[in-house]
Amino acid sequence: MIPREVFEETLLQFFEPIRPLLEDATVSDIVINGPTQIFVERAGILYPTMFQFANEEALMAGLRNCAQFVGKRIDELSPILEGRLPDGSRIEAIIPPASPDGVHIAIRKFSKDSLNVPRLIECGTLSPECAQALDAFVRAKLNMVVAGGTGSGKTSLLNAMAGFVRDEERIVVIEDSRELQLPKPHVVHLEARPADPKGRGEITIRDLFKASLRMRADRIVVGEVRGGEALDMIQAMTSGHGGCMTTVHATYPRDTLTRIETMAMMSDVDMPLTALRVQIASGVNVLVQVARQQDGTRVITHVTEVLGFDIKAASYLMQDLFIRTYQGIGDRGEVLSWLGPTGAPPKCLPQLRAHGLDLPQSMLERQ
């Protein structure tokens, strides 16, 4: 059996043309459109580079080696690869026939220095009082969903929020490809796996989620909900597994609940829509909406409390606790904005106080 260290170095040799980019701490994403067109993202902005692979076969050799590294395959029958590089960076690759124009790759770099809450405050992602509120929500084991578009910082924020979890809690983390690096002593990582060429051995997020319910978890963290596992998550939230956290692709808080609803309906459980909506409104307590701004910065735009579901109006009941106010563009092209409390009285306050927690005074004063 090839030693892991040798395998890792061999894999990196296949990616030698872009190795300087992989080792550049200022690069957050590498986007490859065929062997000669390579872009990098720095501070939220994409820039072209002069780096190139010798030809498409050299690029494919790297992908095949990467697929072998993570126990998957990439070929005409399986043209999509989701995996990771030795340093933990996420790689998504699509080849013909799924991408008729050639090979396309996106690499999300793994940061060795995980963003923590003080650093996010310094970057302007959130305010100190918002951080204090999120701390209380996490410690009180409210169920929370971080939502946003691609590259908006969902995973980074979820990772930082996990820092609020008490050290004595046992956390079960479920992911397609391992990305979360929770800064806690008792973390169990579970990872999904696709079927082999003969259709055997598949392990889905849903399989892992069901197994996690018997793993004596104090809280369950799902890296990203994308399908029918949304229903399993909601049912766990409403059956005593408090403190669940996950991420979802959605643009606005109300869209987030609608998207969870749609994904839950992808499951094989036939449930009346109204009953499903009531469960979602009961299970999800707080939505944290993130976005990437025009200047490339990633910020929290809303912190929204879910209050329930109005059956007569067929509408989710929600209220914004924090909202970002925009003031224009600065002299250097930066977006000027401020995240502050709305003054709406949080309905979850009794639950927080039952845990000996409180919220910033500014949240408790009507404005």
Describe, in plain words, how this protein is organized in 3D.
- The chain is α/β, with parallel strands linked by helices.
- Helices cover 28% and strands 26% of the residues.
- It folds into two domains: 4-108, Beta-Lactamase; 117-363, P-loop containing nucleotide triphosphate hydrolases (Rossmann fold, 3-Layer(aba) Sandwich).
- The chain is built from eleven helices and 15 strands.
- The strands form two sheets. It has a nine-stranded mixed β-sheet, sandwiched between helices. Strands 3-2-1-6-5-4 form a six-stranded antiparallel β-sheet, with helices on one face.
- The longest helix has 14 residues, at 56-69.
Distance between the termini: 66 Å
Say how many strands there are.
15
- Spatial order of the strands forming the largest sheet: 9-8-10-11-7-12-13-14-15
Kindly report the average pLDDT value: 88
**Structural class category:** alpha/beta
Indicate the radius of gyration in whole angstroms.
Answer: 22 Å
Element-by-element helix/strand order: HHEEEHEEEHHEHEEHEHEHHEEEEH
Task: Please state roughly what percent of the residues sit in beta strands, choosing from under 5%, 5-15%, 15-25%, 25-35%, 35-45% or over 45%.
Answer: 25-35%
CATH superfamily of the largest domain: P-loop containing nucleotide triphosphate hydrolases
Count of helix runs:
11
Poorly predicted regions are: none
Would you give the CATH topology of the largest domain?
A: Rossmann fold
Share of helix, binned: 25-40%
Name given to the CATH architecture of the largest domain: 3-Layer(aba) Sandwich
Tell me, briefly, the overall form: globular
The main pleated sheet reads as:
9 strands, mixed
